[in-house]
Design a protein that fits this description.
46% of the residues lie in helices and 12% in strands. It has helices at 25-36, 52-56, 79-88, 107-119, 133-137, 149-153, 159-162, 174-202, 207-215, 223-233, 242-258, 264-278, 290-294, and strands at residues 18-21, 41-44, 60-61, 71-74, 98-101, 123-126, 129-130, 142-146, 165-170. The chain has a 6-stranded parallel sheet with strand order 3-2-1-4-5-6.
């Protein structure tokens, strides 16, 4: 049985716990990274069962990590969920605390939440991670951070754990914007690769052979390294769920509409992802978009 965590103290120490709220694919990968690097981690998730493997590896359960930790990482589904969970735990908020939110969230909601927390003298950094849970687990992801520079600097030891490349891009909400930009390009790269491999298969070119050529051509993108094998083998073991990317795509379109900009390619991508979700592929890896691109075209659709 692990020792109970001590409450937050003013002085930081090498052994102070880092809080972790949310144990989905990304939250679990982050927790594993922290444990591997010798951090004490106080974890919370709506369903405690998800924490069991991490508790076996040395993580410690906390009903409210905010009450115990000077620095708390959040990894949840949407900005609405983040706001709801932080409200439930607000009794644990402490002056000088730093909350690092890795959720891919709404930029406007993120900035507003940052303002509300600042009124409580709590530093809120939006710190979405560009990369899959597997890339995060291997320390290969990119972290994009918005918020107070002094709070960013106070987490200097954590950034190399969370990712290989770290960018501070401006005030709170800036990173949420940059993550949507990144996910827009990444998602279209992945969809284009899937369509290219479906096209190859349809005209009698082996997808594996096509991928080999593509990786050495001007068509190359990192999506080929991360998803190429999965697409060729139709391996949809989850690194990042298709339904979660659809959520991000809808958020991109909503944010673009507010700015008065159409996103025609992203609109097409949305329709494809919705077809995949309707085909019950939403809980699979986002590379499963290939299945809606491989289907034969009916005469009525021509």
């Amino acid at each position: 049985m692990t020792k109970p965590l001590k409450p937050l103290v003013e002085d930081s120490s090498a052994n102070e716990p880092v809080g972790m709220i949310g144990l989905g694919l990304m939250g679990t990968a982050i927790t594993e990274r922290l444990l591997e690097h010798g951090y004490r981690v106080a974890v919370w998730n709506r369903t405690r069962e998800k924490a069991t493997p991490l508790l076996a590896r040395g993580a410690e359960w906390a009903e409210n990590p905010l009450a115990l930790c000077r620095r708390v990482i959040v990894s949840l589904y949407t900005s609405d969920v983040v706001a709801e969970v932080l409200q439930q735990m607000e009794s644990g908020l402490q002056p000088g605390q730093i909350i690092l939110d890795t959720t891919t969230g709404d930029p406007a909601q993120t900035a507003a939440l940052g303002e509300r927390l600042a009124a409580r003298r709590v530093h809120y950094l939006d710190a979405p991670i560009s990369g899959s849970s597997e890339q995060t687990r291997r320390g290969e992801a990119t972290v994009i951070v918005g918020g107070d520079r002094a709070a960013f600097d106070a987490c200097a030891d954590l950034w190399p754990v969370l990712g290989r490349n770290v960018f501070h891009v401006g005030p709170c909400g800036s990173a949420a914007k940059m993550k949507l930009i990144s996910n827009l390009v990444l998602g279209l790269n992945r969809a284009a690769l899937a369509e290219g491999l479906a096209f190859a298969e349809a005209i009698g070119v082996a997808p594996a052979a096509a991928l080999e050529v593509l990786k050495s051509s001007n068509a190359y993108s990192r999506a080929m390294d991360v998803k190429g094998r999965k697409l060729v083998e139709r391996d949809y073991a989850v690194q990042a769920k298709l339904s979660q990317h659809l959520k991000d795509v809808r958020l991109m379109l909503q944010t673009a509409r507010a700015a008065g900009l159409p996103l025609p390619l992203t609109e097409t991508h949305r329709r494809l992802l919705e077809q995949a979700e309707a085909a019950e592929l939403g809980e699979l890896d986002n590379s499963a978009i290939l299945e809606v691109l491989r289907r034969p075209v009916k005469n009525s659709e021509r």
